[in-house]
Every structure is written in structure tokens, then in C-alpha cells.
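Z., the sequence and structure:
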Amino acid sequence: MSQEQQAVARARRAFETGRSKPLEHRIRQLQNLQRLFIEREKDISDAVKKDLNKSEVGTQLYETLGLEGEISLAIRKLKEWAAPRPVEKNLLTISDTVYIKPEPLGVVLIIGAWNYPWAVTIQPLVGAIAAGNAAVVKPSEVCVHTAKVMEQLLPLYIDKELYPVVTGGVPETQELLRQRFDHIFYTGNSMVGKLIMEAAAKHLTPVTLELGGKSPCYIDKNCDISIACRRVTWGKYTNCGQTCIAPDYILCEPSIQDRVIEEVKKCIKEFYTDNPKTCPDYGRVINQRHFKRIMTMVEDSTVAEGGDNDESDCYIAPTILRDVKPESKVMQEEIFGPLLPIMPVSGLDQAIKIINKGEKPLALYVFTSDKKVIQRMIDETSSGGLLANDCLVHFSVNALPFGGVGNSGMGCYHGKYSFDQLSHLRGCLIKQLNMEGVNSMRYPPHTAKKLGWARFFILKHVDFGWMGRMALLAVLVVAAAVVLQNYLQ
């Protein structure tokens, strides 16, 4: 039996003991996980520094701060999320107890990504723990140091049988995917997402796929271009452009292209100094394979700013590309790096056509002071999320579902959405063994009179208060007696 099989089998046995289900256990595990990020902050940031050249403050800001907030929310709201949820009833079930009961799915597989190795791996784990599941955690092997630290630290703080960490590369992931899970949560690219879905289909395992794509950014000529470019520059070059919701390319009218370039150049200098290579807040491309992939994209485009690079250091300077064409190499796939292409368009109509011609993006950005422009983007496009006049920050709002649509993913998470995504929302109806007269309308022989009663009881929806329900119950008792009498005649 392989290590992967053993980890899954142990998690399954641990789940079957039932110890993951009590709310007290879930809260205790979440509290322990929260403690990890406070006590082992240095170990976490040192590993991320080695993998992505993120500063200690940057790691807290973009990795662990959001996780602490997510855990705090889950601890505070868990009893409310896990409680039975009443539903609207029809007259036929007015005296019954009808509700939705969230219950754990079982054993969840979480396959994390390398660009934000803690944030996008542990956030689904928070949801899995809160929902009462066991979870096998597979961090990305691309972040070698972080994966090792995660493997060492998680078992020290949370139940190592219920929540094992499995490290390794493609062979280990493939072996995990051969096992049977009750849900698979994957963050990464659409190509691997298709393989995940194919493997899950063999067991009819549901999946959540958090993918990506080319997230467009339209800048209206009538907006405050200086502020717009400041926010776009931050959103684009954070984590060296390796963010699934980074603005992938800019759409703007030719008349403001030069202004946009100049404003972005100013912000690059302000954020990362004259020499970003020596700036502690500017990251690195994850490895040389991705370095070469990104540099190939520049070949048929005009560099307006940046372009400096050092393969030995996986360094690519913040780069702006101007007058980019739809057929350019940089427009054929998600960039996932520090290149910012600008594609001139005649206006909003053409921008919307270009957006709709491509795959549905994970995020769509629009910068404008005109509410009508924002509304048209909302009404005439489709994307996982839409953000007007800023970048990235919707990811931090736990009350919003985060997820893709179409090629950018399926399913969503964050806050209560994580809990619901990793729960089975079980419909429950509790009826008493009395008032059989009301049920007589459904029993053979079927007649027009019984159908008439059935239409009334099933299709009539009313919302009564407590007194109204008591009065209605009395009416139902009388009606049942009438129906029964008619049935017996």
C-alpha cells in the first residue's frame, strides 16, 4: 500500500470514528490552526521567502492575515452555519417539521497552488474542518520549502489522522487521484483542472475547481487615470504578477494609452524603486520553466517599460507592453507574470466584444466614474467576479463567494460559502403518524375530486405567524375530516 493510500485510509478510518463531527472538536481544531499562524510566523515567512522572494510583511499581508480572518469568522459563526435551516412549507406539510441539515461529506482532497501556497491551500481546509470533514492536504511541490514546512507544522497543531499532509510531485498527486474521495478541491490551471475532473468522474466525486484565465481590465477615458493606474499597478505586479485574479491586460482607447503607460511607470518606481531587482517587496518568478514561458510572450510585442530580466535569478522587471494585438503571443494564454499588455480599443462596445470573445474570466475589472459603464459591464459580460475601480480586494471579503465560471472554474468558497461547498445540505421532513385523512387524496383510486384537493394543498403557499399557524392547523383538521368523509362515501 502506497503512502498516499495509507494517508487516505487513515483519514477515512478517523472520519468513521465520528470525532470530526462535534462542533466542539471543529472549533478546537480551528483554534489550534489559528495558533499555528501566530506561533510559527517566522518559519512560514522564511519558507515563502525562499520560494517566491516574498518579504516577511508581504507574507503576512497576502498569505496569513486573510487566513486568520477566515478562521476567526468560522469559529464565531460555526454554530449558526451548522444549525438546521427552516424552509418554506406548503399546506400539505404545514404541521410537519421541514428543514435543511448541513452534514459532513466525508474525506476531502485539497490540492493547493504554488503562487499563494498557504492562502489557497489552508483556506479550503478551514472550510473542510468547519464542515466536519476529514481532509487530505496536498501542497504544491513547486514551492519546495513551503510544502516541507506545511508537512512539518500542520501535524503539530491539528489532528494528523484526520488532516494528513501528503507531499510530492505529479506521481504522488496521480496516486491520490486514484483513491476515492467525497470531494476534491483544486486550485490551479484549467489544463490540470480537466485532469482532476476526469479522475473524479470515475468515482462520481464532486469537485471545486478554482482556476484562472485572462482577467480583463477596462479603463474608461473619463475616469481618474492616475488613481486607476496606481491600483492596477498594485494588482498586476503584486507577487510578481503570479496572482490568479491579477489584471491580465488593459483595454483602453488609444487617446489615453500614453497617459496610462506614464502613470503605471510612475507607480512602478514608487512601489519598487528605480531598481526593482533589489527591492525587498518585489518577488521572483517561481522557477526557470515559468521564466522562459513568460519571456517568450514578449517576443512579438513592443516593450514600453521594463523588459529587464535575469534567468539565473528568475527575475523579470515590471514590464508594460503597448499596442498589443489580439493575435499577439501574450494574448493567447494567462500571463501569470509581471507583463502588462495594453490593447487599444475604440471604446466600451469593442471592449465588451473582446471580453465576450474569450473564455469567461475569473475576475473582470472596470475603472470609470460613470455608473452606466459599470452597469453595462455587469449586464453584458460574465465572469467569476466583477470589481469596479479597484483590483484584487474582493478576494478579502468573506461575505462574497469567490470562484470562477466556465473555463475559470466551478464552485465557490470563502466564509459560509466554504462551509456550504464542503457540506451536504440534507433535506429533512419529519411527519407524525396521524391526520391520515389529509393523505387520503394521494391514495388510489384517483379521482378528480382528490386531484382538486391535492392542487389546493400542494400549490398553495402562505406565510403565517405563530397564531396564524395554529388557526390554520385547526382548519386543516376540519378539512381532513371533510376529505376523509368524502373518501369514505
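Residues 6 and 43 are 28 Å apart (CA to CA). The chain is about 45% helix and 15% strand.

Let me know what you think.
H.
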